Each structure stands twice: as C-alpha cells, then as structure tokens.
Amino acid sequence: MNRFAYARPGTLAEAAAETGLVSEAMVALSEGAVLMAGGIDLLDLLKSELVTPSLVVSLRGVPGLDAIAQDAAGNLAIGAMATLASVAEHALVRASYPALAQALAGAASPELRNVATLGGNLLQRPHCWYFRSPAHHCLRKGGGHCFAIRGESQYHAIFDNQACAIVHPSTPATALVALGADVELHDAEGAARRLPLEDFFVRPGDDLQCENALRPREVLTAVHLPRLAEGTRMAHLRQGEKTGFDWPLADVAVVLVHDPDGTCHEASVVLGAAAPVPRRARAAEQVLKGRRIDAMVAADAARAALQGATPLSRNDYKLALFEALVRRAILAAAG
Amino acid sequence: MATPTKTAITVTVNGRPRHLELEARTTLAEVLRDGLGLTGTKIACDRGACAACTVWLNGRPVCSCMMLAIDADGQAVTTIEGLAQGEALHPVQEAFIEHDALQCGFCTPGMVMSSAALLERDPHPDAGAVRDALAGHYCRCGTYPHVVAAVLAAAERKS
C-alpha cells in the first residue's frame, strides 16, 4: 500500500466535501481522496496499488449510517454501512425479503460479512482477473482492449460482453434489483436523490471505466426496499464451484406476485454473474405473467431468459447452468 | 492536505488497553504481530481469502488482514492469545488437540477463533452449521473433517 492520510469525519457532508472522487468504486488509478466503508474491497485495491489515494476518508465516524428501519408504510431502509451479516440476520429481512437473506448468506465468508457493508458491496470494483492484475492494462483501466474477450473468460459475462466482459461483482445486488430496491445518494450540500438500483449500475456501452451513476462528492447512504404486495413470493439461488465462500458462476433471483387464484401477475427474474450489471430477464418475465406456474412454464421461461446470450470461448457452460438455475428458482419461488 | 504521519490510537486487546502509534496504512494483523508481538495471529493470503488472520472484533470474527488498524481505534480485539484462561485452554482448543484437528498448524489459530465464536452464538451447531461458520478458512493440510468433529465435541463439552 502507498502512504495515505486518514480522516474519520463525524458528518456525511464533511465526508463528501473531503473527497473530490467519491466511494470505493469510483477511484481506480486515482491520486485523490477515496471514501471507505467496510474497506474490504478498498484494501484489496490498495494492496495491489490499483488505487493510490493521498487521503482515505472513513465513514465509520458518521453516526446512524448502519441503521435498519421500517417506516410507517412498511418500506425498509437499510443504511449503507450496515454489515452484510447484520442485514442477513435482521428479523424483518429474513421474514419479508428471504431472497435477499439467501443472497447475503452466499456472499463472501462469515469473517468478511462481519465487516463488509451493503453499500460497499454494491460499489465493489469488478473482480475480473485482468482488471485486478497490475500486469494487465485493460480497457477499464484506460488501456487498449479487453483481455477477457479472447482470453480466459470462464468467469465472465455471457450477455453485453462485446466491449468489456466483466460480470457484476455483487450477489446481493441480484436480489435487490429483483425486489425493486432504490439507492439513496447524498451530496456535500446535503441534497439527496433516489434512483432505482437497476438504473444505478452503468453498462460498458455507456461508460467503460465506471460501474455506477454516483457523481463526484456523492455518497451512497441507504438502500430502500419497497413494502411487498400481498401474494409476493421469492427465491435466490446460486451455483459456485464450491458450496461456500466462492464467487458465483451464476446466481438468479426471482420475485413473483400471485393472485389469490394462483395466477402470476407480476414477475421479476434477475441474473447475476451473467452481465456487467445485474440483468433483468424480461423475456422470461413475460412468459410467467398471466400464467399458473408449473414445471413446463418454468422451463419455457428459463429458455427465454437465455435468449440473446453471446457466450465467449470459455463460458458457454453458463447457458445450461443459468437455464437450470432460472427454472429451479422460479419453481422455488412459486412454491 | 496533511502529510501522512503516525497516528495515536487505543485498542483494547485481550482485555487490556494498548496505546499504539501507527501509519494509517498498517493493517490490524500487522500491528498485532509486529507492534504487539501477538504472533499467534497468522498472515497467509493477506487478502481475506483464507481467514488465517481471524481475530474477534467486539466479539465477532473478522479477517484482521483486511482491516486498517486505525479503524479498530476504541474497539475491543480478542486474539488467539486471549482465548485461554491462564493455563486452562478453551474447550475448542482442547478439542482440536484431542481430535487431531491440526497438522502444520498455520491455519489453526484462525479456525479456533471462528469456531469459538460460533459456539458463543450457537452453542449446539450441527455439522452443516460448523462447515458454514468455517467456510472462509483454508487448510492446505486438509484437516477439515477433524476440525468439524472437534468443534462438535467442544459443543458437547461446553453444554
């Protein structure tokens, strides 16, 4: 790690004001200041010297950013500094948003979940091994091309992979997008805005060097989960090379809203580890809407979820993997 | 911007307040080993991928290599050296010995810290819960089955 100064301001405005560039996610190769939440991803980037800031601003001194609270209308707000463990263990999360609890249980290891925060998890930089390798000056780091597209692509994207083939690194994000979560962003002047998480993530076609819509001097402060409609059911499934503590090869979140007669009238199907951002499988959602879900419908939807995939030379195995996982997740959610 | 210099912090380590002066870039694992001589905490991967460096932060197991020591200012840290009560080993330590749950021993302090934390939280885990709690730990000698047996035996003994 390079030498850096350290600050632990007591308010959000001070934190935002100290950092021209904001958040763990915004600062590859920067010389400026960087915000630190739990610090798991940032320490990894610092140790590789992919980030060499002159100032690290810790958010640990800002009170209240780790709160998890339900409002009177039944929406749930999760502070960005809440640890993955505290969110996964929270009674309301487990009772009302089990797909999120399932996704969190499969993220990182118990030791890391005790420190890693939900905000930091959403703002991780990509885990593409070419991006993380100091020896590879890839497109996302300002270099000339994506090494993965013609290289070792077994953990890379099968959709939207023409320019840069990263997959989104957050597993909780798969569930949060399926649940219709918003993110809350604050700037140094105290102004706040909310954005659907789905729109917060940035595709390579829109910006090759930045994975989210945070502006300079903005801080991600909370994730908001809407109160769920009557008849909502959900599941999150993941498949890795081993059961515990590994990046998923594929993960899928499904959220369905059933009418009392058992007809599905709302469906959200999201693929993780498939594309540079969590990918809504809209064609699969269309198959499910208006149907009573059985094994045939789930199989049709799973096939639809893979329409338009453009696998690379080492990752076409993901097509069959995702198809099975989508089918199983739909059936698990439908119960 | 201030020139990076050493910062004074106080961390309660194994029940005792310790005053430290360190650079912001120092990890908790580094200061435990090099600053305080508590070399029971091991650094292997130094990236949070093997959990050999596990200590308790306010009672919860964390990877001390993936945390800046300065972020532990004012917090309570327990290391493997703080687990035994004098000469009396922790039940998890006893069980590791009885069940031959270590070979080279490099991963063992971290395994013991996570196992002991599990039993604090869940005194009667089944084998699956033990495996989940230890999912972050790597043992290149392959002692895993003995480790799971030891933790289950320690749970029996504690109850």
How does this model look, in words?
The complex is a heterodimer of chains A (335) and B (159). Helices cover 28% and strands 19% of the residues of chain A. Chain A has 13 helices and 12 strands. In chain A, the strands form 3 sheets. Chain A has a 5-stranded antiparallel beta sheet. In chain A, strands 9-10-11-12 form a 4-stranded antiparallel beta sheet, with helices on both faces. Chain A starts with a strand and ends with a helix. By secondary structure, chain B is an alpha+beta fold. Chain B has helices at residues 28-35, 91-98, 108-121, 127-133, 144-158; strands spanning 7-13, 16-22, 54-57, 60-63, 76-78. In chain B, strands 2-1-5-3-4 form a 5-stranded mixed beta sheet, with helices on both faces. In chain B, a hairpin with a 2-residue loop joins strand 3 and strand 4. In chain B, helix 2 (91-98) crosses helix 5. The N and C termini of chain B lie far apart (56 Å). Chain A binds chain B through residues 1-6, 39-40, 43-44, 46-47, 54-56, 58, 60, 85, 108-112, 114-115, 243-245, and chain B through 1-4, 7, 23-25, 27, 46-48, 51, 54, 57, 60-63, 65-68, 70-71, 114, 131-133, 135-136.
Summarize the structure.
The complex is a heterodimer of chains A (335) and B (159). Helix content of chain A is 28%, strand content 19%.
